[in-house]
Amino acid sequence: MSRLSFKEIRGTEDILPEKIGVWRRMENAAREVFDLYCYEELRTPILEETGLFISGVGETSDIVTKQMFSLADRKGRSLTLRPEGTAPIIRAYLKHRIYKNPIAKIFYMGPFFRSERPQAGRERQFHQIGAEAIGCDNPSMDAEVISLLIHLLNKFGITGGRLELNSVGCSLCQGPYKEKLREYFAGEETPLCPDCQRRLNKNPLRVLDCKRPECQSLIVDAPPLPDYLCNSCSEHFQKVQAILKSLSISYHLHPYLVRGLDYYTRTAFEITHPALGSQNAVAAGGRFDNLVEKMGGELTPAVGFALGMERIILIQEKEKVTAPLETRLSVYLAPQGKEAFQEMVNLLKELRQNGIKSELDYEGKRLKNQLRLANKLNAQYVAILGEEELRRKTITLKNMDTGKQEELPIDLSDCLNFISKVLHLIPPHI
């Protein structure tokens, strides 16, 4: 009889228990940093109407033209697995009237989906952590968002990144610049790649984002975008740079940096890291002052970023970054025999109810094997209860770091108080 055999879909990955600690540490660290900056979490559905991304991200973007996973539901409506986080956040911002707050500071984290060739740090299901500050057009907010991003990376142990900075202007300055780009590329003898030839007519800014060698060789001599900024956008960009300098945040001006989504205006930025090789972007973002209005709201300024969690982990592995350990297992309970097991079941319940991370041997292993497993679980202490301890009405508490052993009274209250004391916790009250 043949057995069914299934495996994960190409471009997706099982995150196993032995690896999940890295992910949890990143998520917990991110929440700590977001809390410092007064950002609140918002969780949006994985499935959204396809039109949300066509309208929000832009019909000329690679995401819409090439990368979306879309399907029809039973009523024939087109739905899409979310390929990015900003458009869903703005949809929720409008639907739930979050705009009643003067400035909405929102963060999100979770899985996203794009149909592209899988490679290291670029899977079809990938995970992002992002933030959006909605309702403020002050250049200081651009700088705060960048500062927040750098704070996050430092919290993850990531150093050595490079901040690339540019301004993509607004509709007033983008119009003349797009015409200048069309003139420039049309006059070149070397043709653009087929994709960029199509982009040149619809949105020439997309050409600047192309990574093909034949296009890159032409882009380096193209008219620099900042030269075409209107007075308002130029002033905004200068103020952003001045604030970054005052915060001692170094950056590199990149006159051809644009984002791969059509909603960006003014400030655009990217953080790259050499450990990632050619696909070296670890995080990116910028300002999107027209997106709320485009999606049916009032004209509302906004700025944000997203970082790739898989890419953070790749850097940590390559740079041998030592992340802080998850909370250790405080006590491993090692009973010897049925009577001892029942006593330990009662103790386990009290330990956990008093916030002490504990585990119990349910399989009746020999003490030697229990100690070996406790060591593997990185337990701080092992509580041993055997025939001798039962006779003396005590529990032996072994410090797994020092090997020192102490005898505790088997009484639950006294035992809990002692364990809480050695763990530097507030003594429980039973």
Automatic annotation (TrEMBL):
Q: Which CDD domains match?
A: HisRS-like_core, HisRS_anticodon
Q: Where are the transmembrane segments?
A: none
The record's section on Pfam families has:
HGTP_anticodon (PF03129), tRNA-synt_His (PF13393)
Among the GO molecular function terms of this UniProt record, one is: ATP binding
Q: Which UniProt keywords apply?
A: Aminoacyl-tRNA synthetase, ATP-binding, Cytoplasm, Ligase, Nucleotide-binding, Protein biosynthesis
Q: Is Transit peptide included in the keywords of this UniProt record?
A: no
Which EC class, in a word?
Answer: ligase
Q: Which compartments does it reside in?
A: Cytoplasm
GO biological process, alphabetically ordered: histidyl-tRNA aminoacylation
Listed under subunit, the entry gives: Homodimer.
Task: Name the HAMAP family for this protein.
Answer: His_tRNA_synth
Which NCBIfam families does this one have?
Answer: hisS
What name goes with this protein?
Histidine--tRNA ligase
